[in-house]
Each structure stands twice: as structure tokens, then as C-alpha cells.
Design goal:
The protein is α+β, with helices and mostly antiparallel strands. It is about 15% helix and about 20% strand. It has 2 helices and 4 strands.
């Protein structure tokens, strides 16, 4: 299930993390409402975790471990962002089959 956000989302923001005030992952941006500005949606973190658990072991290159320890929860938001910035990557996806 998705959760609705009051957040302006631009094309390319899909997959961005949604964090609560303590830095816990709440979900990942999945879509926006093109008819209403400031309405967007995220896939809940619990649902993502369940999907990951359903991936067959042979499909994973290495063992996947998810830490439940939040090391940024007691930091101010600006400090949380400084710690998280090195962990954020921009991934470009191309539909090569459409170019044929």
C-alpha cells in the first residue's frame, strides 16, 4: 500500500527516501498526482522490506542485511542530511527496448 504525502515531487524523484523526523525510513517516493500540486505518494518501508524478503536467494549476489539501528535519530536535521548525502546516488534508467 502507498501513503499520501503533502510534498512537491518532480520527475526523477522516484525512489528517493522519505524519512521521519528521527531519520527512520518511512518509504520511497513512487509517484505524484499530476492534477493536484503538492500531492505525491510513497511505497511504505514495511512493504519494501516484505518484497525484498520474497526475492529468491539465488537472485541475490550477496547476502542482504538490513540494519534496524538508527545512528542519526538524535541528530539535528541538517546533521542527518550531512550523514546521508554520501549514501544517495542518482541512478539513470533507460528504456533501450523503446529505442529500437
Amino acid at each position: 500500500s502507498k501513503c499520501q504525502l503533502s510534498l512537491i515531487v518532480n520527475p526523477g524523484n522516484s525512489g528517493s527516501p522519505v524519512l521521519d523526523e528521527k531519520g527512520n525510513l518511512v518509504g520511497l517516493i513512487s509517484s505524484r498526482n499530476d492534477e493536484v500540486q503538492g500531492v505525491s505518494y510513497a511505497i511504505k518501508a514495511a512493504q519494501i522490506s516484505e518484497m525484498i524478503k520474497k526475492i529468491p536467494d539465488e537472485k541475490l549476489r550477496t547476502e542482504l542485511s538490513v540494519q534496524n539501528k538508527n545512528t542519526i535519530k538524535n541528530l539535528k536535521r541538517t546533521e542527518q542530511i550531512k550523514k546521508l548525502t554520501p549514501c544517495v546516488f542518482n541512478i539513470m534508467v533507460y528504456n533501450s527496448h523503446l529505442a529500437q
